[in-house]
Design a protein that fits this description.
With 134 residues, the protein is of the alpha+beta class. The chain has two domains: 43 residues, no CATH class; 64 residues, Carboxypeptidase-like, regulatory domain (Immunoglobulin-like, Sandwich). 19% of the residues lie in helices and 34% in strands. It has a four-stranded antiparallel beta sheet with strand order 5-4-7-8. It has a three-stranded mixed beta sheet with strand order 6-3-9, with no helix packed on it. The longest helix is centred in the first third of the chain and has 21 residues. The N and C termini lie far apart (91 Å). 6% of the residues are buried.
Amino acid sequence: MSRITKLFVAGFLALAAFAPIAAARRPIVVFRGYYGPAFYGPAWYGWYGPGWVAPYGYVPGPSGGSVKIDSRMKDAAVYVDGGYAGTVGKLKTFTLRPGTHDVELRDPSGHSFYQEHIEVIAGKTIKISPDVRG
């Protein structure tokens, strides 16, 4: 074999041997018994940085609340905080971030027939029953 072929094969084998090592994820550093921020390696690990581990039994709570619309007009348009969200028939129950929101229902011709200012609480469902008078 020629010298160039030998160098090419050696380089390819070295690349094949070190590629999995280079692609591996860095291990997460866990500070056991230390409760403050620290400098470790190339980055600063703060209170909830990469070295933070959730305690045993930690289950994250719900991040939003639900809104259920109970209406006979399934083709009514739903607007939340001024933006179109969909129709009552397709949405039925949808989630919103906790806080105050303005919910508006409009008939297919575009006239508003229901407006309400609601307070959404995480993990709770708010039921809206608009009184549709024909």
